[in-house]
Amino acid sequence: MDTKNLIPLLAMPALLLAVEIGALLLSLPVQASGIVAFQDPTSYANPVIFIAIILAFTAFLLVLIKYDLKKVIGAVIGISIFLTFIYIFMAIVYAVMGESDLATVIVIVLSVLVTVILYKYPEWYIIDGLGVLMGAGVAAIFGASLDVLPVVILLALLAVYDAISVYKTKHMITLAEGVIDQKTPILFVIPKRRDYSFIKEGIGKIADGGERSAFIIGMGDMIMPAILVVSANVFLKGWRLAGMVNLPALGAIIGSLAGLVVLLHFVMSGKPQAGLPPLCGGTILGFLAGWALMTGMG
Fold first, then answer.
1. Nearest Cα to 248, choosing from 208, 286, 200?
2. What is the CA radius of gyration of the chain?
3. Which of 78, 228, 267, 298 has its CA 20 to 30 A from that of 70?
4. Phi-psi region for residue 34, left (φ > 0), alpha (ψ -120 to 50) or beta?
5. Distance between CA atoms of residues 258 and 194, nearest Å
6. How far apart are CA 82 and CA 132, in angstroms?
């Protein structure tokens, strides 16, 4: 493997680790602020609701792509990003300042600012930097809102869905290409050369298998493993490394990185790959190993 590919491939595990560590850190203000995605974290209906929302949103975007409604696509994703940052900054600011009118104004200003930056200057390093914050924030909110078993079920179901949508129906490829055409910042972009510009060059067609100037990985591929990392750390008690991270969460981190290595092996074929099967599979196996080790110690 040449350096052109090696350095970007090493950057992907670094980004995944950044999202997971960021999610663990953000889970503290999320819990302190009382921001939750689900009222009952133990309900097995939660994974079904989560997937139903994903399916509905995906279907909506595919319709927009089919009818070439580019401005609507950009607006829908932009609003979604803005609302996501609202919740993330709300958790951080409220945890520091408490809930107040001033805190709310700060949350709105910060959310508007980062959303405008993403859309006015969607260069790859802006997308990746703010993507880490967004991915970590989303994972922190959902991880702190879902108990471990519902998360495991969710990850298993999403892995199956991702495989079907990429290899069989291929609608996820259509969705990814439609999003990339708009240069919408809901993925991570890892360039293969220093002078690469996402604004000027984009990515090209995903399905053609040709040489591209950058690797991409969906934000969801980074977020889903981090949800289990946070959930394990929030809902399971036991020995913690440096008093912060328990063994099941640590095992999930190691497992997710191992799953990413497997994914990157197949990515080198140049063909589109479903990221969640190896990522979720590795995360679940790592979590189980850490959980077994922790219970054995207990």
1. 286
2. 19
3. 267
4. left
5. 27
6. 15
Per-residue pLDDT of the chain (298 residues; tens, 9 = 90+): 555 677 888 899 999 999 999 999 999 999 998 898 999 999 999 999 999 999 999 999 999 988 988 889 889 999 999 999 999 999 999 999 999 999 999 999 999 999 999 888 989 999 999 999 999 999 999 999 999 999 999 999 999 999 999 999 898 888 887 777 666 668 899 998 888 998 888 775 555 555 678 888 889 999 999 999 999 999 998 888 878 999 999 999 999 999 999 999 888 877 788 999 999 999 999 999 999 999 886 5
Which distant-in-sequence residues (6+ apart) come within 8 Å of 225 by Cβ?
A: 16, 20, 155, 252, 255, 256, 259, 279, 280, 282, 283
Distances from the Cα of 194 to the Cαs of 125, 164, 262, in angstroms?
Answer: 11, 35, 26
Bridge partners of 188, per DSSP, are 217
Cβ(228)–Cβ(148) below 8 Å: yes
b/e map of 226-256 (b: 16 or more CB within 10 Å)? bbbbbbbbbbbeeeeeeeebbbbbbbbbbbb
**Which tokens go with 73?**
């696509």
Give yes or no for a contact between 77 and 184, defined as CB atoms under 8 angstroms apart. yes
Q: CA 74, CA 69: separation in Å to the nearest integer?
A: 9
- The whole-model pTM stands at 0.93
Q: What are phi and psi of 217, to 5 degrees?
A: -145, 135
Q: Across-strand partners of 187?
A: 218
Tell the residue number behind the tokens 């394990």, with chain if given.
232
